[in-house]
Amino acid sequence: MNNVIIVAYDISNNKVRTQFSKFLERYGVRVQFSVFEIQNSQRVLDIVIHTIEHKFKKKFESGDSIYIFRANHSNTIRYGSAAIIDNDLIFL
Question: What's 65's domain CATH number?
């Protein structure tokens, strides 16, 4: 089974937000403007979390927020363009 995480963020600094989104694009798929789905091995997920902790965390401002959800694919209701995605999500 693939490991899946959802990363949602709200970063006020344009430069940091751009760097962060470009970083996430290397590992996952943008599903919303500030939301990425990352599917891969535990090793890749560990790299993503480690990089956030050691590279980006110090750049975040007090009002910024990053959420990381671990997920498995299961039954999810989707509308609009999300309806064409083959995988379903369920949060643990």
Answer: 3.30.70.240
Work out how many domains the chain is built from and give that number: 1
Structural domain boundaries, residue 48? 3-91
pTM: predicted TM-score of the whole model, two decimal places: 0.78
Span 7-65, pLDDT tens digits: 999 999 999 999 999 999 999 999 899 999 888 778 888 888 999 999 999 999 999 99
Burial classification of residue 32, based on how many CB atoms lie within 10 Å of its CB (0-12 exposed, 13-18 middle, 19 or more buried): exposed
Q: Which amino acid is at 69?
A: F
Altogether, the residues listed in the chain come to a count of 92
